[in-house]
Amino acid sequence: MRSRPLKGExxxxxxxxxxxxxxxxxxxxxxxxxxxxxxxDPQGWLTDQIRPQGADTIDPQMxxxxxxxxxxxxxxxxxxxxxxxxxxxxxxxxxxxxxxxRDAGPDFAGRLNLAAGTDASFRERWALFWANHFTVSxxxxxxxxxxxxxxxxAIRPHVFGRFEDLLVASSSHPAMLLYxxxxxxxxxxxxxxxxxxxxxxxxxxxxxLAREIMELHTVGVQSNYSQADVTEFARxxxxxxxxxxxEGDRSGKFYFRENAHEPGARxxxxxxxxxxGYDQARWVIRDLAASSFxxxxxxxxxxxxxxxxxxxxxxxxxxxxxxLDSHGDLAVVAQTLIRSPETWTPQATKFxxxxxxxxxxxxxxxxxxxxxxxxxxxxxxxxxxxxxxPSPKGWPDESAAWLDPDGLVKRMAWSETFSAQAVxxxxxxxxxxxxxxxxxxxLAAKAIGRAETRAEGLSILLMSPEFxxx
Length: 470
What we know:
By secondary structure, this protein is an all-alpha fold. It is about 55% helix and about 5% strand.
Protein backbone atom coordinates (compact mmCIF):
# COMPACT_ATOMS: atom_id res chain seq x y z
CA MET A 1 0.00 0.00 0.00
CA ARG A 2 1.71 3.19 -1.17
CA SER A 3 0.76 6.67 -0.05
CA ARG A 4 0.42 9.81 -2.13
CA PRO A 5 0.38 13.37 -0.80
CA LEU A 6 -3.01 15.01 -0.44
CA LYS A 7 -4.03 16.70 -3.66
CA GLY A 8 -2.80 20.26 -3.78
CA GLU A 9 -0.40 19.85 -0.82
CA UNK A 10 3.36 20.32 -1.11
CA UNK A 11 5.26 17.66 0.80
CA UNK A 12 8.56 18.16 -0.98
CA UNK A 13 10.65 18.02 2.17
CA UNK A 14 14.15 16.64 2.29
CA UNK A 15 13.83 12.85 2.03
CA UNK A 16 16.55 12.32 4.64
CA UNK A 17 14.64 14.39 7.18
CA UNK A 18 11.33 12.76 6.26
CA UNK A 19 12.84 9.31 6.74
CA UNK A 20 14.11 10.33 10.16
CA UNK A 21 10.71 11.74 11.12
CA UNK A 22 8.93 8.63 9.85
CA UNK A 23 10.99 6.32 12.05
CA UNK A 24 11.38 8.47 15.16
CA UNK A 25 8.09 10.40 15.37
CA UNK A 26 5.57 8.06 13.84
CA UNK A 27 7.54 4.94 14.67
CA UNK A 28 9.11 3.88 17.95
CA UNK A 29 12.68 4.91 17.10
CA UNK A 30 14.99 3.88 14.30
CA UNK A 31 16.85 0.60 14.31
CA UNK A 32 20.09 0.23 12.38
CA UNK A 33 19.44 0.68 8.65
CA UNK A 34 15.80 1.69 9.11
CA UNK A 35 16.19 5.35 8.14
CA UNK A 36 18.05 4.27 5.01
CA UNK A 37 15.26 1.81 4.19
CA UNK A 38 12.60 4.50 4.61
CA UNK A 39 14.43 7.18 2.62
CA UNK A 40 13.23 6.36 -0.88
CA ASP A 41 9.55 6.73 0.09
CA PRO A 42 9.01 7.69 3.76
CA GLN A 43 5.23 7.89 3.41
CA GLY A 44 5.08 4.59 1.57
CA TRP A 45 7.28 2.99 4.24
CA LEU A 46 4.63 3.95 6.77
CA THR A 47 1.52 3.08 4.78
CA ASP A 48 2.95 -0.34 3.94
CA GLN A 49 2.57 -1.13 7.65
CA ILE A 50 -1.21 -0.66 7.53
CA ARG A 51 -3.00 -3.97 7.07
CA PRO A 52 -6.56 -5.27 7.43
CA GLN A 53 -5.67 -7.89 10.03
CA GLY A 54 -4.59 -5.23 12.48
CA ALA A 55 -1.49 -5.00 14.63
CA ASP A 56 0.97 -7.76 15.44
CA THR A 57 0.14 -10.39 18.04
CA ILE A 58 2.03 -10.04 21.31
CA ASP A 59 2.29 -13.79 21.91
CA PRO A 60 0.39 -16.47 19.96
CA GLN A 61 0.69 -18.76 23.00
CA MET A 62 -0.83 -16.28 25.45
CA UNK A 63 -3.63 -17.76 27.52
CA UNK A 64 -7.08 -16.42 26.69
CA UNK A 65 -9.02 -14.11 28.97
CA UNK A 66 -11.42 -16.98 29.70
CA UNK A 67 -8.53 -19.19 30.85
CA UNK A 68 -7.09 -16.38 32.98
CA UNK A 69 -10.48 -15.84 34.63
CA UNK A 70 -10.74 -19.55 35.38
CA UNK A 71 -7.33 -19.38 37.10
CA UNK A 72 -8.41 -16.38 39.13
CA UNK A 73 -11.64 -18.02 40.20
CA UNK A 74 -9.65 -21.05 41.34
CA UNK A 75 -7.65 -18.66 43.50
CA UNK A 76 -10.89 -17.30 44.99
CA UNK A 77 -12.24 -20.82 45.57
CA UNK A 78 -9.07 -21.83 47.38
CA UNK A 79 -9.47 -18.92 49.78
CA UNK A 80 -13.15 -19.62 50.46
CA UNK A 81 -12.55 -23.36 51.00
CA UNK A 82 -9.77 -22.70 53.48
CA UNK A 83 -11.88 -20.24 55.43
CA UNK A 84 -14.89 -22.59 55.53
CA UNK A 85 -12.70 -25.40 56.88
CA UNK A 86 -11.27 -23.14 59.57
CA UNK A 87 -7.81 -23.42 58.09
CA UNK A 88 -5.40 -20.51 57.85
CA UNK A 89 -6.33 -18.76 54.62
CA UNK A 90 -3.63 -18.31 52.01
CA UNK A 91 -2.18 -14.83 52.13
CA UNK A 92 -4.30 -13.05 49.49
CA UNK A 93 -1.65 -10.41 48.85
CA UNK A 94 1.05 -12.99 48.18
CA UNK A 95 -1.27 -15.02 45.97
CA UNK A 96 -2.26 -11.91 44.07
CA UNK A 97 1.37 -10.99 43.46
CA UNK A 98 2.07 -14.53 42.25
CA UNK A 99 -0.82 -14.31 39.79
CA UNK A 100 0.34 -10.97 38.45
CA UNK A 101 3.93 -12.13 38.05
CA ARG A 102 2.89 -15.37 36.40
CA ASP A 103 0.56 -13.77 33.89
CA ALA A 104 1.10 -10.03 33.51
CA GLY A 105 4.90 -10.11 33.66
CA PRO A 106 5.37 -12.33 30.59
CA ASP A 107 2.60 -10.43 28.78
CA PHE A 108 4.42 -7.13 29.30
CA ALA A 109 7.76 -8.70 28.40
CA GLY A 110 6.24 -9.93 25.15
CA ARG A 111 4.97 -6.46 24.32
CA LEU A 112 8.37 -4.90 25.08
CA ASN A 113 10.20 -7.43 22.92
CA LEU A 114 7.77 -6.84 20.07
CA ALA A 115 8.26 -3.07 20.29
CA ALA A 116 12.04 -3.34 20.50
CA GLY A 117 12.39 -5.65 17.51
CA THR A 118 9.52 -4.97 15.12
CA ASP A 119 10.14 -3.84 11.54
CA ALA A 120 6.71 -2.16 11.60
CA SER A 121 7.07 0.34 14.42
CA PHE A 122 4.35 2.68 13.12
CA ARG A 123 1.90 -0.20 13.27
CA GLU A 124 3.00 -0.91 16.84
CA ARG A 125 2.76 2.74 17.90
CA TRP A 126 -0.74 2.91 16.39
CA ALA A 127 -1.75 -0.17 18.40
CA LEU A 128 -0.27 1.26 21.60
CA PHE A 129 -2.20 4.48 21.07
CA TRP A 130 -5.49 2.59 20.96
CA ALA A 131 -4.55 0.36 23.91
CA ASN A 132 -4.02 3.53 25.95
CA HIS A 133 -7.24 5.08 24.62
CA PHE A 134 -9.15 2.04 25.92
CA THR A 135 -7.17 1.72 29.14
CA VAL A 136 -7.56 -1.23 31.46
CA SER A 137 -5.29 -0.83 34.47
CA UNK A 138 -3.84 -3.24 37.02
CA UNK A 139 -5.69 -1.60 39.89
CA UNK A 140 -7.37 -4.96 40.54
CA UNK A 141 -5.70 -8.36 40.60
CA UNK A 142 -8.09 -9.83 38.07
CA UNK A 143 -7.66 -6.99 35.58
CA UNK A 144 -3.86 -7.16 35.91
CA UNK A 145 -3.93 -10.71 34.63
CA UNK A 146 -6.35 -9.80 31.82
CA UNK A 147 -4.57 -6.77 30.33
CA UNK A 148 -2.47 -8.88 27.95
CA UNK A 149 -5.42 -10.90 26.62
CA UNK A 150 -7.54 -7.73 26.43
CA UNK A 151 -5.00 -6.00 24.22
CA UNK A 152 -4.43 -9.11 22.12
CA UNK A 153 -8.10 -10.06 21.71
CA ALA A 154 -9.99 -6.76 21.69
CA ILE A 155 -7.56 -4.06 20.54
CA ARG A 156 -4.91 -5.30 18.13
CA PRO A 157 -7.17 -7.10 15.62
CA HIS A 158 -9.28 -3.95 15.10
CA VAL A 159 -6.85 -1.01 15.01
CA PHE A 160 -7.06 -0.66 11.22
CA GLY A 161 -10.73 -1.60 10.97
CA ARG A 162 -13.92 0.28 11.80
CA PHE A 163 -13.83 2.22 15.05
CA GLU A 164 -17.29 0.91 15.89
CA ASP A 165 -15.96 -2.65 15.88
CA LEU A 166 -13.02 -1.65 18.09
CA LEU A 167 -15.39 0.11 20.47
CA VAL A 168 -17.71 -2.90 20.73
CA ALA A 169 -14.80 -5.33 21.18
CA SER A 170 -13.24 -3.28 23.97
CA SER A 171 -16.52 -2.45 25.72
CA SER A 172 -17.68 -6.07 25.82
CA HIS A 173 -14.37 -7.66 26.76
CA PRO A 174 -14.24 -9.27 30.24
CA ALA A 175 -11.26 -7.10 31.21
CA MET A 176 -13.20 -3.86 30.61
CA LEU A 177 -16.40 -5.25 32.13
CA LEU A 178 -14.50 -6.08 35.32
CA TYR A 179 -12.26 -3.01 35.39
CA UNK A 180 -15.23 -0.62 35.24
CA UNK A 181 -17.60 -2.86 37.27
CA UNK A 182 -20.10 -3.39 34.45
CA UNK A 183 -20.40 -7.09 35.27
CA UNK A 184 -21.99 -6.05 38.60
CA UNK A 185 -24.50 -3.62 37.09
CA UNK A 186 -28.15 -4.60 37.46
CA UNK A 187 -31.21 -2.80 36.20
CA UNK A 188 -33.13 -1.59 39.29
CA UNK A 189 -36.35 -3.07 37.92
CA UNK A 190 -34.77 -6.22 36.47
CA UNK A 191 -35.66 -9.75 37.56
CA UNK A 192 -32.10 -10.34 38.81
CA UNK A 193 -32.15 -7.22 41.00
CA UNK A 194 -35.45 -8.20 42.61
CA UNK A 195 -34.18 -11.73 43.26
CA UNK A 196 -30.94 -10.52 44.84
CA UNK A 197 -32.65 -7.89 46.97
CA UNK A 198 -35.17 -10.45 48.23
CA UNK A 199 -32.22 -12.57 49.34
CA UNK A 200 -30.47 -9.75 51.11
CA UNK A 201 -27.79 -9.18 48.49
CA UNK A 202 -26.88 -5.82 46.97
CA UNK A 203 -27.87 -5.16 43.38
CA UNK A 204 -27.79 -1.80 41.69
CA UNK A 205 -26.95 0.20 38.61
CA UNK A 206 -23.28 0.95 37.91
CA UNK A 207 -22.56 3.85 35.56
CA UNK A 208 -18.76 3.54 35.26
CA LEU A 209 -18.52 1.94 31.84
CA ALA A 210 -21.29 4.04 30.31
CA ARG A 211 -19.64 7.22 31.60
CA GLU A 212 -16.17 6.33 30.35
CA ILE A 213 -17.43 5.25 26.92
CA MET A 214 -19.02 8.67 26.52
CA GLU A 215 -16.39 10.83 28.21
CA LEU A 216 -13.18 9.09 27.16
CA HIS A 217 -13.84 6.64 24.33
CA THR A 218 -16.30 8.48 22.08
CA VAL A 219 -18.00 11.89 22.11
CA GLY A 220 -16.00 13.51 24.93
CA VAL A 221 -17.10 16.24 27.30
CA GLN A 222 -17.28 18.81 24.49
CA SER A 223 -20.46 17.10 23.29
CA ASN A 224 -22.29 18.43 26.37
CA TYR A 225 -24.03 15.17 27.17
CA SER A 226 -25.90 15.22 30.47
CA GLN A 227 -25.83 13.08 33.59
CA ALA A 228 -29.23 11.81 32.54
CA ASP A 229 -27.69 10.59 29.26
CA VAL A 230 -25.06 8.65 31.22
CA THR A 231 -27.66 7.09 33.49
CA GLU A 232 -29.89 6.09 30.60
CA PHE A 233 -26.94 4.60 28.72
CA ALA A 234 -25.96 2.66 31.85
CA ARG A 235 -29.51 1.29 32.03
CA UNK A 236 -29.30 0.27 28.38
CA UNK A 237 -26.02 -1.55 29.11
CA UNK A 238 -27.38 -3.59 32.00
CA UNK A 239 -27.05 -7.24 31.16
CA UNK A 240 -23.63 -6.84 29.54
CA UNK A 241 -21.79 -9.31 31.72
CA UNK A 242 -19.53 -12.39 31.88
CA UNK A 243 -20.39 -16.06 32.00
CA UNK A 244 -19.81 -17.65 35.40
CA UNK A 245 -17.49 -20.48 36.34
CA UNK A 246 -20.20 -23.13 35.96
CA GLU A 247 -21.83 -21.77 32.82
CA GLY A 248 -20.20 -24.05 30.30
CA ASP A 249 -18.91 -22.63 27.03
CA ARG A 250 -19.74 -19.06 28.01
CA SER A 251 -17.69 -19.21 31.23
CA GLY A 252 -15.26 -16.28 31.36
CA LYS A 253 -16.63 -14.79 28.13
CA PHE A 254 -18.98 -11.94 27.32
CA TYR A 255 -22.56 -12.92 28.05
CA PHE A 256 -25.73 -10.86 27.90
CA ARG A 257 -27.87 -11.59 30.97
CA GLU A 258 -31.44 -10.85 29.97
CA ASN A 259 -32.68 -11.06 33.55
CA ALA A 260 -30.24 -8.29 34.64
CA HIS A 261 -31.31 -5.89 31.88
CA GLU A 262 -33.39 -2.84 32.76
CA PRO A 263 -36.56 -3.03 30.65
CA GLY A 264 -37.93 -0.04 28.78
CA ALA A 265 -37.10 2.55 26.15
CA ARG A 266 -34.19 4.98 26.68
CA UNK A 267 -33.66 8.61 25.64
CA UNK A 268 -29.96 9.36 25.09
CA UNK A 269 -28.51 12.53 23.56
CA UNK A 270 -31.78 13.47 21.92
CA UNK A 271 -32.57 10.08 20.42
CA UNK A 272 -35.03 7.45 21.62
CA UNK A 273 -34.00 3.78 21.70
CA UNK A 274 -36.77 1.19 22.04
CA UNK A 275 -36.43 -1.80 24.32
CA UNK A 276 -34.36 -4.41 22.49
CA GLY A 277 -32.30 -6.28 25.09
CA TYR A 278 -28.64 -6.50 24.08
CA ASP A 279 -29.24 -4.49 20.90
CA GLN A 280 -30.41 -1.43 22.80
CA ALA A 281 -26.91 -0.61 24.09
CA ARG A 282 -25.44 -1.81 20.82
CA TRP A 283 -27.49 0.78 18.91
CA VAL A 284 -26.33 3.50 21.26
CA ILE A 285 -22.71 2.48 20.69
CA ARG A 286 -23.29 2.53 16.93
CA ASP A 287 -24.56 6.11 17.10
CA LEU A 288 -21.79 7.24 19.44
CA ALA A 289 -19.19 5.83 17.04
CA ALA A 290 -20.77 7.71 14.12
CA SER A 291 -21.01 11.04 15.93
CA SER A 292 -19.11 14.09 14.67
CA PHE A 293 -18.18 14.73 18.31
CA UNK A 294 -16.43 11.36 18.39
CA UNK A 295 -14.67 12.14 15.13
CA UNK A 296 -13.37 15.42 16.58
CA UNK A 297 -12.40 13.84 19.91
CA UNK A 298 -10.41 11.05 18.25
CA UNK A 299 -8.84 13.36 15.66
CA UNK A 300 -7.61 15.67 18.41
CA UNK A 301 -6.14 12.81 20.44
CA UNK A 302 -4.38 11.30 17.41
CA UNK A 303 -2.91 14.66 16.39
CA UNK A 304 -1.78 15.31 19.95
CA UNK A 305 -0.15 11.91 20.30
CA UNK A 306 1.68 11.82 16.99
CA UNK A 307 2.49 15.47 16.26
CA UNK A 308 2.15 18.10 19.00
CA UNK A 309 0.73 18.72 22.47
CA UNK A 310 -1.16 21.62 20.91
CA UNK A 311 -2.66 19.76 17.92
CA UNK A 312 -2.54 21.69 14.61
CA UNK A 313 -6.16 22.63 13.80
CA UNK A 314 -5.67 21.83 10.10
CA UNK A 315 -4.51 18.32 10.95
CA UNK A 316 -7.41 17.78 13.35
CA UNK A 317 -9.83 18.92 10.64
CA UNK A 318 -8.30 16.52 8.10
CA UNK A 319 -8.44 13.56 10.47
CA UNK A 320 -12.00 14.37 11.49
CA UNK A 321 -13.11 14.58 7.85
CA UNK A 322 -11.35 11.32 7.02
CA UNK A 323 -13.11 9.60 9.92
CA LEU A 324 -16.56 10.86 8.96
CA ASP A 325 -16.16 10.34 5.21
CA SER A 326 -14.97 6.76 5.70
CA HIS A 327 -17.55 5.94 8.38
CA GLY A 328 -14.88 5.42 11.01
CA ASP A 329 -12.36 3.44 8.96
CA LEU A 330 -9.18 3.69 11.05
CA ALA A 331 -6.96 2.61 8.14
CA VAL A 332 -8.15 5.68 6.23
CA VAL A 333 -7.52 7.86 9.28
CA ALA A 334 -3.98 6.46 9.60
CA GLN A 335 -3.32 7.11 5.91
CA THR A 336 -4.55 10.68 6.30
CA LEU A 337 -2.20 11.21 9.23
CA ILE A 338 0.70 10.01 7.09
CA ARG A 339 -0.26 12.18 4.11
CA SER A 340 -0.85 15.40 6.02
CA PRO A 341 1.85 18.09 5.80
CA GLU A 342 1.48 19.01 9.49
CA THR A 343 2.76 15.56 10.40
CA TRP A 344 6.11 16.30 8.78
CA THR A 345 7.10 19.58 10.43
CA PRO A 346 10.84 19.54 11.22
CA GLN A 347 10.38 20.68 14.83
CA ALA A 348 10.23 17.77 17.28
CA THR A 349 7.92 18.91 20.07
CA LYS A 350 6.76 15.62 21.62
CA PHE A 351 8.72 14.49 24.70
CA UNK A 352 8.96 10.72 25.01
CA UNK A 353 7.20 8.86 27.79
CA UNK A 354 9.39 6.44 29.81
CA UNK A 355 8.04 3.52 27.75
CA UNK A 356 8.91 5.27 24.49
CA UNK A 357 12.33 6.27 25.82
CA UNK A 358 13.31 2.74 26.80
CA UNK A 359 11.97 1.17 23.61
CA UNK A 360 13.71 3.71 21.35
CA UNK A 361 16.95 3.22 23.30
CA UNK A 362 16.84 -0.52 22.75
CA UNK A 363 16.04 -0.02 19.09
CA UNK A 364 18.84 2.52 18.62
CA UNK A 365 21.38 0.29 20.34
CA UNK A 366 20.16 -2.88 18.62
CA UNK A 367 19.39 -4.63 21.91
CA UNK A 368 16.28 -5.69 23.81
CA UNK A 369 14.66 -5.38 27.23
CA UNK A 370 16.63 -8.19 28.89
CA UNK A 371 15.27 -9.05 32.34
CA UNK A 372 11.71 -7.81 32.57
CA UNK A 373 12.08 -6.73 36.19
CA UNK A 374 14.88 -4.32 35.21
CA UNK A 375 12.55 -2.62 32.74
CA UNK A 376 9.71 -2.58 35.29
CA UNK A 377 11.93 -0.95 37.91
CA UNK A 378 13.22 1.63 35.43
CA UNK A 379 9.78 2.60 34.15
CA UNK A 380 8.37 2.75 37.68
CA UNK A 381 11.22 5.01 38.80
CA UNK A 382 10.54 7.28 35.82
CA UNK A 383 6.87 7.57 36.74
CA UNK A 384 5.16 5.10 34.39
CA UNK A 385 4.61 1.89 36.33
CA UNK A 386 3.83 -0.81 33.74
CA UNK A 387 0.18 -1.76 33.25
CA UNK A 388 -0.84 0.71 35.96
CA UNK A 389 -2.26 3.84 34.39
CA PRO A 390 -3.69 5.96 37.22
CA SER A 391 -7.22 6.12 35.80
CA PRO A 392 -9.37 5.00 32.85
CA LYS A 393 -8.08 8.10 31.06
CA GLY A 394 -4.79 6.27 30.49
CA TRP A 395 -1.29 7.68 30.46
CA PRO A 396 -1.07 11.40 29.59
CA ASP A 397 0.17 12.42 26.15
CA GLU A 398 1.37 15.91 27.03
CA SER A 399 5.10 16.49 27.46
CA ALA A 400 4.63 18.22 30.82
CA ALA A 401 3.66 14.90 32.37
CA TRP A 402 7.17 13.50 31.78
CA LEU A 403 9.41 16.55 31.54
CA ASP A 404 10.34 17.05 35.19
CA PRO A 405 13.73 17.27 36.98
CA ASP A 406 13.40 14.01 38.92
CA GLY A 407 12.35 12.11 35.82
CA LEU A 408 15.31 13.48 33.86
CA VAL A 409 17.71 12.43 36.63
CA LYS A 410 16.25 8.91 36.54
CA ARG A 411 16.61 8.81 32.74
CA MET A 412 20.22 9.91 32.98
CA ALA A 413 21.03 7.24 35.56
CA TRP A 414 19.40 4.56 33.44
CA SER A 415 21.16 5.80 30.28
CA GLU A 416 24.58 5.57 31.93
CA THR A 417 23.99 2.03 33.17
CA PHE A 418 22.45 0.87 29.90
CA SER A 419 25.16 2.47 27.74
CA ALA A 420 27.94 0.77 29.68
CA GLN A 421 26.31 -2.60 29.01
CA ALA A 422 25.14 -2.01 25.43
CA VAL A 423 27.81 -0.07 23.55
CA UNK A 424 30.52 -2.78 23.42
CA UNK A 425 33.11 -1.79 20.78
CA UNK A 426 30.72 0.19 18.56
CA UNK A 427 31.18 3.80 17.54
CA UNK A 428 28.54 5.96 19.29
CA UNK A 429 28.75 8.47 16.43
CA UNK A 430 27.65 5.82 13.98
CA UNK A 431 24.89 4.73 16.35
CA UNK A 432 23.72 8.35 16.52
CA UNK A 433 23.61 8.65 12.72
CA UNK A 434 21.61 5.43 12.47
CA UNK A 435 19.22 6.38 15.27
CA UNK A 436 18.51 9.99 14.32
CA UNK A 437 19.69 10.54 10.75
CA UNK A 438 19.04 14.10 9.60
CA UNK A 439 17.50 14.95 12.97
CA UNK A 440 20.93 14.78 14.65
CA UNK A 441 22.08 18.36 15.29
CA UNK A 442 25.69 19.58 15.15
CA LEU A 443 25.97 20.29 18.88
CA ALA A 444 24.83 16.80 19.85
CA ALA A 445 27.06 15.23 17.18
CA LYS A 446 30.05 17.19 18.49
CA ALA A 447 29.37 16.23 22.11
CA ILE A 448 29.04 12.56 21.18
CA GLY A 449 32.27 12.72 19.17
CA ARG A 450 34.18 14.32 22.05
CA ALA A 451 33.06 11.82 24.68
CA GLU A 452 35.91 10.22 26.59
CA THR A 453 34.49 6.71 26.27
CA ARG A 454 32.12 4.89 23.95
CA ALA A 455 29.68 4.36 26.81
CA GLU A 456 29.69 8.06 27.59
CA GLY A 457 29.08 8.84 23.93
CA LEU A 458 26.05 6.56 23.77
CA SER A 459 24.71 8.01 27.01
CA ILE A 460 25.05 11.54 25.59
CA LEU A 461 23.12 10.40 22.53
CA LEU A 462 20.28 8.97 24.60
CA MET A 463 20.00 12.11 26.72
CA SER A 464 20.29 14.53 23.80
CA PRO A 465 17.24 16.73 23.04
CA GLU A 466 17.01 15.15 19.58
CA PHE A 467 16.68 11.67 21.07
CA UNK A 468 14.42 12.62 23.98
CA UNK A 469 11.98 14.29 21.61
CA UNK A 470 10.27 12.94 18.55
